[in-house]
Amino acid sequence: MGNIGAKEVPTLLDAEGRRIDGRRLDELRPIQIRAGPLRQADGSAFVEWGANKVMAAVYGPREVHPRHLQQNTKAVIQCRYNMAAFSVDERKRPGIDRRSQEISKVIAEALDSVVFAEEFPRTSIDVYIEVLQANAGTRCAGLVAASVALADAGIPMADLLPAVAVGKVGGAIALDLKKEEDNFGEADLPMALVPQSGRLVLLQMEGHMTEPELAQALDLGVGGCRVIYEKMKAALRERYSVAPAAEEAAA
Amino acid sequence: MKPGPGTYRVGGKVYASQLGLLAPRPPLLQVVPLSGRYLPRAGDTVVGTVTDVQSTFWLLDIGAPRWAPLHMTGVPWKVDVGETEQYLRVGDAVVVRVENLDPTGRIGVSMQGEGLGKLEGGTIVRISPARVPRLVGRGGSMIETIVRHTSAEVAIGQNGRVWIGGSAEAIRRVADVLRMIEENGPRPGLTDRVERFLVASTPTGPAAEGVPVRGVLHDEAPPPGGAPDEEVGADSTGAPEDD
Closest residue of B to A126, CA-based? Predict the structure, then answer.
């Protein structure tokens, strides 16, 4: 977003290399993930990531609606990313806008690259992402929530999809930008990783950085994704663990 | 070992493709899913609701990835083309058997056979399909216990939909037990706990005696022209809001 319209640019990086909220350049904001909070959905997840609060619900595989989207060889993955009117300081005009359409599309495509959609031809897997509170990095938080919700729904897939944004603030490459850093920083680079294969299935960039900076940013982001990956797995384990004597389960 | 259900292989290594428990079954490595929609298997008896009526078949929601067509030749009545709606309407609850599955995911079901038919009255409660063996119990012990203590009529679908018929009180008690099973599925000694719960919650006094059974499994054809069923309190239109 560059510095367009910025009146007072806050100091994003102090002399000791600390960021606006006291983090170091390679530090993530605190993340909490809960799998399965919703009863009606086939799978769900709630992610609190810094000041972001994002709920994801997954339904399906189920009948495709609208019908004409049905595919004969695989399930279609339909995603709706939506920001609540109260999710930002100034009221956000409710409903689909260009930004949310784009995010819905890139998230659906990222998920499509890991889900084994051929196992459910002529069906739809519907993913709903609701941003309740936003503070930069909501597409990443949304994708993390959606991915955990898909696993919770028992959907077969290659791997979970951890995601994080890296950016450039105060001239330095920093992990997991918060709102002020996103607004007043020089660049923002959200990405999503398939940990099993090391592939990136979502990569967007806003702003400018040099080639060496980009390489550094990718490394930093992949490292961040791996940390988030462990938290995603832990959330699913917690959801499905039973107190003592879990043996007789499957029988 | 080779990749079995719930797994996939890349570069000589086998990974889980689904959230579940590792259950190696040599020579296969497989993952038994802990969640997910009901995946039909031929021979399963399932409880479903009618979602659409066409001139020669009905579409049923059995909780599977797709709706299952029930053809007019697969019911215990002689139905003429175009008369399907006189027998089953949208929202009606039925017990059917999964007959065949094709690779495109089409699910063929039939209503001809013992214990299959239209369900009248009662209500439908959903539990996880993974919990169904728990609800039946070893040799039917769990469900037998439940029925004995509540005098309710119960039809269990392999798809995790459970139809309960009987007095409102009986339905409520069975629904309570189902919730207990849903929440405590993986713990041992559940049948005993359920029995203790039912004994402890048995209503006493004359009011509890001789509860009328309202839900009936219909095998015979209803009078054509739309059966004027006596409407009973609990609805059978499926999809109940859980609490």
Answer: B65
